[in-house]
Amino acid sequence: MVLVFAVGYAGIIFEESLAFNKSGVAILMAVCLWVVRSIGAPSTDVAVQELSHTTAEVSEIVFFLLGAMTIVEIVDAHQGFKLVTDNISTRSPKALLWVIGIVTFFLSAILDNLTSTIVMVSLLRKLVPPSEYRKLLGAVVVIAANAGGAWTPIGDVTTTMLWIHGQITTLNIMQGLFIPSAVSLAVPLALMSLTSSEANGSSQESSSLLSSEQMAPRGQLVLAVGVGALVSVPVFKALTGLPPFMGMLLGLGILWILTDAIHYGETERQQLKVPQALSRIDTQGILFFLGILLSVGSLESAGILRQLANYLDATIPNGDLIASAIGVASAIIDNVPLVAATMGMYDLTSYPQDSDFWQLIAFCAGTGGSMLIIGSAAGVAFMGMEKVDFFWYTRKVSGFALAGYAAGIMSYLAAQNLHISLPTSLAEIPFIPGS
């Protein structure tokens, strides 16, 4: 099974060289792994039971992503995000660098890092003419999208996986990771502002394309309902106790009925309705997640991930170092299988819900991918949309992203240590009564 996984994953990593689509490779790998598992299991019934359990868990994530992507696509089709982009009016290169980063950071927390990257890079095409400076702004979008997606349960696929499976909870992950995520963005922005020649150039001329786009009828209403549906998913889970994907499907159903009602009889606006939006979402990406998660589930059922966890515990006994190493690895290897494997290696008895380990895993896996352009879905989307070269990103951006990643980890560890050691430190101060 390890051999099958290694061969399949090599096919995913080198998909462009081999001209094989990674989604097809992932699906084929998943089926092959479960066939091998069924042969090696005590009986076929045991393998089928394990597969049913894994499929139930994986389907929650797939349905969640399907609903979220569709909602965002409907809002985007109505030009709902124009309300955000219309308020970006600065012409100072340094100021625009920070504005784009901050807007993307919070947009990614509400939507997700991939969608936010697509929206913001599309915006940059209308704000800034083709140039090295626009590439740098696009790189800022990637760093900000990954940082913003790490501190909310709906901002990144890996954080969503941890949330759905109970490793983290909404309020604790937001409280614990907001400051480290903000630091991991602020440090690269500050370094770029000080050292990058592109950010210290002359004022940029904006394009007139942005003002020519018009919001679709009732676009503000669709934006409000769509964003409300996304944000209310954690509330729905808290109130009903049902899985998050049910809250996401509830929001999709409401938005579906709403768009059918407001565009009733308007045959020329069919592209604004849900059926057309479903045809535009990244179905290949969803199938890739399906294949990867099913593959990792087979390794977990066979006990392979538990053996790996025992080896890591014996070799690297520090959970913080393990989480940091996973973040570095996510710059090269997709963070979805890394986090899925980690969840299979360590259960809630090893590290309880909302422990420092799981929070650091969410942060490192989310932000570590910024160090290379191929390390995250946001980076791959940016590379494809702007035709950015791998080596340009490595030369111009990777060092900034690494500095932000390291600073974010240090800020998280410092905050946790401060919280633990603060009462003891105060007790040692001789001027405090009772010390």
UniProtKB/TrEMBL annotation:
Entries under InterPro entries matching the protein: Cit_transptr-like_dom, NhaD-like
Subcellular location: Membrane
Protein known as: Citrate transporter-like domain-containing protein
Any GO CC annotation of this UniProt entry: membrane
Matches recorded under Pfam families: CitMHS
Key words of the record: Antiport, Ion transport, Membrane, Sodium, Sodium transport, Transmembrane, Transmembrane helix, Transport
Membrane topology: Multi-pass membrane protein
Transmembrane segments: 20-37, 58-75, 95-124, 136-154, 174-194, 221-239, 245-265, 286-309, 321-348, 360-385, 397-415
Domain called Citrate transporter-like: residue spans: 9-343
Family affiliation: Belongs to the NhaD Na(+)/H(+) (TC 2.A.62) antiporter family.
GO molecular function, one term: antiporter activity
Biological process per Gene Ontology, one example term: sodium ion transport
